[in-house]
């Protein structure tokens, strides 16, 4: 592949994708809204760009084969705060990809698109949208956008509904964990699969307690290797009894399912910022 683009390259997940993506193409263009992302890998260039600007995205995606779209405001917040990067940004990526003749968009979607489904339901990739927040609603919008652009314009997309890609330090993560190695594999398979059309796949590792079903996306060849059960004894020992009336404990969206609309869901999640440094 000649040229790949990675949005959200300055973010935590983007930091783990940059180097592997350089090995899949002649040129990786990493982009974000920061002035620079430090040292670049061989074959990588950086272009500053605002997702809310169609002109910026047209420039970033020029002559690209595919885009891995991980850029977004990565938390719940007021609708107005998410409108530019998450809603308009998604439209700009798909529209620019179509105008520039890209073959596929690989999108960092989220479990929050279906976050209000009960965890006792073993949901598949065809579960109806049931967003838990404005953030989840933006993921629904992008998934429907991808479906429409495939049906109407022939632009393929793979929507990776990531559950929780962070260190395992809570009981929910025993089922929802996606390791960085498995994230990389999932992105690679989403790029390498010859034909995808429009497809949803859950971004989750091979956990004993996995709460979702990827069977209908098996053709992508994604076979996660890591298992959060290795952390179970310590995590459960540190976990007090849970309130079974709290949607944060009972729904797939976790804390996002219990916060008021517009309030941060990340604030109570104790996410460790172990961003990879170049």
TrEMBL record:
Q: Name one Pfam family in it.
A: Epimerase
Species name: Sulfitobacter mediterraneus
- Residues annotated as domain NAD-dependent epimerase/dehydratase: 5-162
InterPro entries in the record: Epimerase_deHydtase, NAD(P)-bd_dom_sf
Which PANTHER family does this one have? ADP-L-GLYCERO-D-MANNO-HEPTOSE-6-EPIMERASE (PTHR43103:SF3), NUCLEOSIDE-DIPHOSPHATE-SUGAR EPIMERASE (PTHR43103)
User: Is NADP there in the keyword field?
Assistant: yes
Q: Which UniProt keywords apply?
A: Carbohydrate metabolism, NADP
Lineage, uppermost ranks: Bacteria, Pseudomonadati, Pseudomonadota, Alphaproteobacteria, Rhodobacterales
- Name listed for the protein in its UniProt record: 3-beta hydroxysteroid dehydrogenase
Record keywords: Transmembrane included?
Answer: no
């Amino acid at each position: 592949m000649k040229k790949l683009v990675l949005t959200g390259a300055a973010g935590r997940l983007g930091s783990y994708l940059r180097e592997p993506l350089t090995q899949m193409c002649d040129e990786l263009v990493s982009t974000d809204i920061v002035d620079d992302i430090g040292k670049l890998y061989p074959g990588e260039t950086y272009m500053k760009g605002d997702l809310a600007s169609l002109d910026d995205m047209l420039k970033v995606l020029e002559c690209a084969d595919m885009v891995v779209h991980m850029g977004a405001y990565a938390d719940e917040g007021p609708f107005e705060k998410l409108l530019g990067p998450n809603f308009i940004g998604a439209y700009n990526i798909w529209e620019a990809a179509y105008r520039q003749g890209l073959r596929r968009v690989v999108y960092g979607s989220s479990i929050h698109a279906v976050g209000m489904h009960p965890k006792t339901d073993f949901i598949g990739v065809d579960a109806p949208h049931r967003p838990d927040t404005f953030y989840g609603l933006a993921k629904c919008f992008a998934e429907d956008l991808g479906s429409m652009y495939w049906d109407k314009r022939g632009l393929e997309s793979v929507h990776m509904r990531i559950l929780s890609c962070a260190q395992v330090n809570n009981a929910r993560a025993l089922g929802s964990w996606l390791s960085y190695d498995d994230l990389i594999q999932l992105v690679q398979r989403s790029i390498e699969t010859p034909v995808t059309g429009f497809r949803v796949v859950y971004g989750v590792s091979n956990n004993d307690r996995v709460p979702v079903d990827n069977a209908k996306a098996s053709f992508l060849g994604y076979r996660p290797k890591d298992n959060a059960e290795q952390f179970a004894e310590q995590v459960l020992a540190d976990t007090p009894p849970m309130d079974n009336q709290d949607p944060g404990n009972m729904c797939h969206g976790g804390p996002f399912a219990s916060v008021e609309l517009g309030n941060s869901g990340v604030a109570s999640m104790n996410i460790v910022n172990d961003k990879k440094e170049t």
